[in-house]
Amino acid sequence: MQFDKEKWNYQTDPAFPPDYRNRMVNDLTQHHQLVGLHYPQLIQLLDQPSFIDSAAVSYELDVDYGRDIDPVYIKNLNFYLSKDSIVTSFKIEEWRK
Predict the structure, then answer these.
(1) Which CATH number covers residue 60?
(2) What is the DSSP string of 25-92?
(3) Most exposed among 10, 18, 86, 87, judged by the fewest C-beta atoms under 10 Å?
(4) How do residues 1-20 score in pLDDT, each as one tens digit?
(5) Which domain of life does this protein belong to (predicted)?
(6) Number of domains observed in the structure of the chain
(7) Which pTM value belongs to this model?
């Protein structure tokens, strides 16, 4: 699915990541220049991240809670930042319980 900022942030349930992210991530990472963006440019493109710390920002792509209150599967798009808040790399990471 082609990246669209409005759909990237469209969310029907606040407990889950926005609905279209997982389907758009390949287009976003393959057809948009992400490395080299300054943090404010990244926020302008994707809006606020799901998680942030001093060296990285993360956008949730998919979460599965199974039959528990704790997730059993998480898929994130993580951006790694330089000390000057410039995107140096990104990676799609998955975790399973």
Answers:
(1) 3.30.1450
(2) HHHHHHHS--TT-BHHHHHHHH-S-SEE-SSEEEEEEEEE-TTSSS-SEEEEEEEEE-TTSBEEEEEE
(3) 10
(4) 999 999 999 988 887 788 89
(5) Bacteria
(6) 1
(7) 0.91
Strands 73-81 and 56-64: antiparallel
Mapped onto helix, strand or coil, the DSSP state of residue 6 is: helix
- Structural domain including 42 reads 5-96
Name the strand (E) or helix (H) holding 8: helix 5-8
Q: What is the number of other CB atoms lying within 10 angstroms of the CB of residue 30? A: 9
The residue with tokens 């302008």 is: 44
47: phi > 0 → left, psi -120 to 50 → alpha, else beta; which? left
21-66 pLDDT tens trace: 999 999 999 999 999 999 999 999 999 999 999 899 999 999 998 8
Quote the tokens at residue 77: 């798009």
